[in-house]
Amino acid sequence: MKPALVTGASGFLGWHVAHLLVERGYSVRALLRPGRRLAELDAETVIGDLRDRDSIERAVAGCGLVFHVAADYRLWARDPGELYRSNVDGTRHLLDAARREGVDRVVYTSTVGCIGIPDEGLGDEDSSVSLEDMAGAYKRSKFLAEQVALEFAREGLPVVIVNPTAPVGDHDFKPTPTGQMVLDFLEGKIPAFIDTGLNIVDARDAAKGHLLACERGRPGERYILGSENLTLAETLALLARMAGRKAPALRLPYAVAYCAGVCSTAWAQVTGRRPRIPIDAVRMARKKMWVTHEKARRELGFIPGPAEEALRRAVEWFGGAWRALARIPAA
Fold this sequence. Notes:
Number of strands: 12
Strand content: 5-15%
Helix content: 40-55%
Largest sheet: 7 strands, parallel
Shape: globular
CATH architecture of the domain at 4-172 and 199-230 and 289-307: 3-Layer(aba) Sandwich
CATH superfamily of the domain at 4-172 and 199-230 and 289-307: NAD(P)-binding Rossmann-like Domain
Strand order of the largest sheet: 3-2-1-4-5-6-10
């Protein structure tokens, strides 16, 4: 059996995809950036960088499947160009290498941020959206990368696109911005909230969705991998019940949060340290990112579990194992 290449396997969602493939008996090759480690997985590792075309070609050589999960997932970067070089140029390098190798299937991991959200109702794969709707460098870079994947699909490469919502659960090493929210709550660092909402999905279910997309997805199609639409207040209430803490009662007006984001981000440009409140995160929060995964259910057989289970695993992870493994660098 030819190996399945997984990019981003030292990160959160990529780790779950690689873990599931190993569990299902696949031979897995994990692409790691220099200095990264692969935790708790029996897989072949290759060193490379999405920005380095030659290293990507070496990583893809001999593979039958490619799961491109890696991304520069930051809501603030002192040099936003770093996100475009990894997310857009890196995706083009990988898909070009996959086409040259003649792989059987590519699953490209996009994001729910590339899904249009209507003023009323839920967003889906056909909701109207454009680059102008993308708030911040991360979402813009992922939107452009998704367009690259669609371009390759039109040219004949068997690429299936998945759009995970907000994955939550164990093995969130870095952690991701969503995992950071859980960690901040557990550490008492969320004194207030704003009126926003997100769709939460268990990272294990999102990984299953990747494999279903590989097995049953139609090339050139997008599939939302989500579960439950929750307000931020509802999410914090669930965390409070699990952790035995009080949920914040103070609701901030959007204008106050925006001002805090502007100040926090401006200070980050001076210090070079990640802002406590990235302005791009505040801009994203202005609209509830509520979507439906009906297409994935219908075409892939994707049936995710409840968000509460995912949040409970995240609470247990950040309260225990993460303390020992948190310093492992993640992609």
